[in-house]
Amino acid sequence: MAKDFYATRSTAWWKVAIAMIGSCLSGVTFVSVPGMVGAVGFGYLQMCVGFFLGYLVIAFVLTPLYFRLNVVSVYEYLEKRFGVASHKTGAWFFFVSKMLGASVRLFLMIATLQLLVASPAGIPFWVTTLVVVALEWLYTVRGGVKAVIGLDIVKTVAMLVAVILCLVLIAREVGKPDTSLMRVFYFDDVNHPEYFWKQLLGGLFTVVAATGLDQDMMQRTLACKSVRDSQKNLIVSVLLQIVTIALFLFLGVYLYQFAALHGIEATGDSLFPAVTWSGLLPASGLVATLFIVGLVMAGFPAGGSALTALTTSFTIDILGGKEEKRTWVHTGMAVLMAVCILVFNALNNTSVIDAVYRLASYTYGPILGLFAFGLCCKKQVRDRWVPVVAVAAPLLCLVLDLNSVRWFNGYHFSYELLAMNAAFTIIGLCCLIRRER
Predict the structure, then answer these.
(1) Less crowded by CB within 10 Å, the N or C end of the chain?
(2) Is the pLDDT assigned to residue 41 strictly greater than 90?
(3) pTM of this structure
(4) What is the CA radius of gyration of the chain?
(5) Do 261 and 177 meet the contact criterion of CB atoms below 8 Å apart?
(6) For residue 266, is it left (φ>0), alpha (ψ between -120 and 50) or beta?
(7) DSSP one-letter string for 175-230
(8) CA–CA separation, 136 vs 301, rounded Å?
(9) With DSSP H G I counted as helix, E B as strand and the rest as coil, what are the percentages for the chain, rounded to 5?
(10) How many angstroms separate the CA atoms of 150 and 372, rounded?
């Protein structure tokens, strides 16, 4: 049964492509992307350009490498290239990044369900959290990767149906979209977080790191029958993801217009729930139901796939493939995820789409740097010092980020922190190159 947690390279590419739409678009997308329109318009599409370029790198550089090496965990490459310490470093950074990122995404779904459903019924947040995480554990502990891909397909269809129907119903009430909320490109101010080149580079490096170097996401791609099928899956998937994101952005325009017409003051992550549950829409019961269904189908499978990937990586990369402990590891991952969600709730901050990408900038940067150095440079490094470099790079980025306005004439770092983090890691690895005798 352990093999069910790994890709078996037997799934049709088009099924994986559809599943990847759902796996890449979580409850954060469902709630936060429409809400961000009020602040930055359609600026998120700039990042989508970077997503597309990143998927080309994954399809034509990383995927052939993984198939050629025939790895179960993508971080096995680091051991083959550098050594055990590098392998463990990549695995631990993935563990921290995936656990925090998945917990943030699942927290947003649970927090919204708590506000709309559980609290009115008198159910405390911790009970809702335990029930949701227990259900995640139940459906993944038996089904593994096949269950994840199957549910991701269902999730994709349900989420798209929900957002399209909501879009149509709200658009009928509002009329023409407000084009002032639809600005795409930001070229005028390099200090602005939405500056085009920041967003493009951030999208490119985020996708390469958070998809191409992510055990969770690459297990789907490695489930395809061949390299060519995987490449078709990736290209079709990213194009469909961009179309889906555009639908959410258009929905955001109509949500803000509807809120303005009816005096609803909610913005950001609170906007979509506030409008759908205001009772002011025609067929308001249907819209509210669609919102809940879409939110659950967007958020629930993401947590399950993260549990599967965390179990695989921890068992293979950190415990050295001790399959007899897999069920205990899976249970431990679920418990830790529940704890993280309860901590996020105590912090009381649901504006999370930016937080997710900021986390990726710090935790995926060293992984990106390790893979980039390994692929572009044939030199060997002193493996035992790699963890020191991997920890130092994000700490240096944090110092620069906290002081950028004062040190760099008002400059604000955005998602380009990920590329800078990777660059610091590469510089550190250059310092560890072994001298040839």
Answers:
(1) C
(2) yes
(3) 0.77
(4) 21
(5) no
(6) beta
(7) -S--GGG------S-TTSTT-HHHHHHHHHHHHIIIIIT-HHHHHHHTTBSSHHHH
(8) 8
(9) 80, 0, 20
(10) 32
Spatial neighbors of 174 by CB under 8 A, at least 6 apart, are 254, 257, 258, 261
Q: Which helix H or strand E contains 395, and what residues bound it?
A: helix 386-407
Query: Distance (Å, rounded) from C-alpha 23 to C-alpha 215?
Result: 13
Rounded CA separation 265/390 (Å): 44
Encode pLDDT of 152-182 as tens digits. Answer: 677 677 777 878 888 888 888 888 889 999 9
Spell 72-89 as b/e; 16+ CB within 10 A means b. Answer: bbbbbbbbebbbebbbbb
Number of residues that this document lists for the chain:
437
Token readout for 289 is 């139901």
Q: From CA 149, how far away is CA 224, in angstroms rounded?
A: 11
Q: What is the DSSP string of 227-296?
A: HHHHHHHHHHHHHHHHHHHHHHHHHHHHHHHHHHHTT----GGGHHHHHHTSS-STTHHHHHHHHHHHHH
For 173, the token pair is 């009430």
Q: What angle do CA 292, 162, 40 make, to 5 degrees?
A: 90
Q: What is the DSSP string of 88-146?
A: HHHHHHHHHHHHHHHHHHHHHHHHHHIIIIIGGGT--HHHHHHHHHHHHHHHHHHHHHH
The three-class DSSP label of residue 432 is coil
Tens of pLDDT, residues 301-359: 667 777 877 887 788 888 876 667 778 888 999 999 999 889 888 876 545 556 666 77
Quick: pLDDT tens for 116-150.
888 888 999 999 999 999 988 887 765 555 555 66
Amino acid at 324: E
Nearest Cα neighbor of 154 from 143, 169, 170, 141 is 143
Question: pLDDT (tens digit, 9 = 90+) per residue, 361-411?
Answer: 788 889 999 999 998 888 999 999 999 999 999 999 999 988 988 888 888
Which structure tokens are listed for 363? 């935790």
Taking the C-alpha atoms of residue 232 and residue 14, their distance in angstroms, rounded to an integer, is 8
pLDDT at 231: 92
Given a contact cutoff of 8 angstroms between Cβ atoms, the answer to whether 367 and 317 are in contact is no
**What is the rounded distance in angstroms from the CA atom of residue 31 to the CA atom of residue 36?**
9
Placement of tokens 């911790």 in the chain: 126
Q: What are phi and psi of 224, to 5 degrees?
A: -70, 160
Residue 407: count of CB within 10 angstroms of its CB: 11
